[in-house]
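Schema walkthrough. Field components (list of strings):
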Amino acid sequence: MEIPYAQHYQKVFTDLMTGTGQYDAFFCGADWYGELIAGDYIISIDDLMKDPRFPKWASDSLAPSIKNLYTWGGKWYGTFNDSDGQTLYYRKDILLNLDNQKKFKEKYGYDYNTPPKTWQELYDVSEFYNGWDWNGDKEPDSGIVMHLKVGAQGMYHYVSLSAPFCLLPGDKVDKYHNVYWFDPEDMTPLINDEGHVKALEFQLKLQKTGPDAQVAWSLGEAWDYFLRAKAIYCFSWGDVGSLIQDESRSKIKGKMGNSILPGNNEVFDRSQNTFIKMDPPNVWGNTTGGSWHGVISTLSKNKEAVYHLLAFHATKKISLWNITRGWTGVNPGARFQFLPPEGDGKIEDYVSQGWNADDAKEYLKGEQENFFAKYIAPYLRIPGGNEYWVALDRHLSEAYTGQVSAKEALDRTAKDWDETTNRIGREEQLKSYQSAIGYTK
Amino acid sequence: MSALRSRKIKYFFILPSIIWVLAFTIFPLFYSLGLSFFKVRLGKPTHFVGLANFERIINDYKLVNSLKVTLLYVAITVTVQIVLGILLALLFHQETKGKSILRALMILPIFCTPVAVGYLGLTIFYEEGGPLNSFLMSLFGAKIPWLSHPTWAWVAVLLLDIWQWTPFCFLVILAGLQSLSEEIYDAAYIDSSSEWEIFRKIALPMIQPVVIIVLLLRLIESFKIFDVIFSLTGGGPGTATEVFSLYTYRTGLRFFDFGYASALSYLLLAIVMIIINLFFKRIRAVYE
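Field assembly_structure (string):
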């Protein structure tokens, strides 16, 4: 049964909360786990995975950052399907054009990197390419395109972009290192600290180098804009790379580049309450998004049958078929899908499905860099997760559309988050959050 | 014996209606009232909180915004729909060629599903190459940020609602006009009144009860507006078009905070009841 994204969460949870049990299994975003586990709504599949009667899928092949999203407390709950993380797609052909590079240097005084090393560099390049016809269609084109519509996953852009502004890297999770969402000692929201405000101010500036309409665009519209060769950059999920291969809607097959998102030359250090310089730039991989996958409802009367179906879809053959087709929404995150040295996949797996070989290499390189990055931005999976996400989404949209300043939008988000935390129970939430991010005193 | 059976059988026939009203109106009404006094987590009442959910209403800045948006929305759409409805009704009250076909065409929007209208709006108001902006570009060389600008998104929502519901106002008011006796008009023409005078001093006062009923129905419906906004803007950009019912929906069916959502629903009920009472008073005054 297919449910539109906007109604997905409430349909599933209404079924679970009312005990209706209409769905034996359902696809969920990894950020739902806080509530699914708290409500005891899904079952662990550890025993089913060992059962020889069911199709075998390579659970040990998942990138560690992705495996974290399919497990909770050391137990498996999800069967492998999708791996979400935002990477930077760029128009390699335009960016490597020597004429363009020369003009850029004349204007900005330096040679740009392809892909850019920092967000500031990306901004300069995006600004340079914005507003003139660099693709020959006699219409002005854009530097970047984002999907920023409220209620349509717009907030994920901010989360991916802001990580290197706010996340102080460290060897372990403590009060100041590797924390993004809340203070791990008292659940004070960090979303309005100076690092976040600077990140959002930067995003608002960057937004001006793209089409005005993007604040009302969901994924499809923004991706189509990039596929129609109208923007230099688009940072989004793995779907874009495989959609580019579909020549019925893409004009840029064979012209794409893909990399981990840029870093930042400074990061906000809360222990000193100041920004500190970072050289090399502060770079974070991310698992932003849902990493949509199947879980089995506690209410199901056909747990084994439904596991069989999900496990079948997680097998190498089906999984590869899915990730080579953009419209399935399934993106790579397991070693058997990547190329050596991190993976053991083969370029032929992609080329035989119609991929341009260079695109496939670029695509998998970018995804690999992201999921196997030294630092992976922490993921929010606590009870009430959806409420926190929605609050962030609506207030970011207020800032994107000029209704409030970056600071005001994030202050409002922090206020809403505090209300949610207090209503659910601060102590309960603190324990859950500490467990989710691996914090110990 | 036969009379007794006849008396009993009438209860049998009204029983389905009674069950329907009890199950789908009375029970939810009291159940939600009960819920509004509880903290609800993941759809399950956890403990009694007294009036806490109603106190929360007072301090909820998001609610204030959604109320403002709703009141403005209701005021604009209902006013425009009624005025346009009257004007169209006057036009169609004249003898014109092809009137019945035009009237049938005029009322078609009423039969559209509001959610579908919202999705249709997404196409019409699409900013980069959508039909409306393409038309504006060809005429004026400029386009309008229909869905990405808070004010224009508002305009887009208003236009769709007015397009869909003006025909309803027009149809009912036209029926009101046509129910007036021709003799009244004939008498007025003998007194050589102008068309405007006849409308202002004779037709309008006589169809006033009809206009009030239309106004009342549109007010109630407009306060509950949800579908078009849900599908067209999702309440955005930001919170620019987040009406009260959308906010309540999110609270109840997105966050599953049924306690607070119930309290919010009772607030809307109270607002609508006050308006209905005011209008009934007015209707009574007209008739008396």
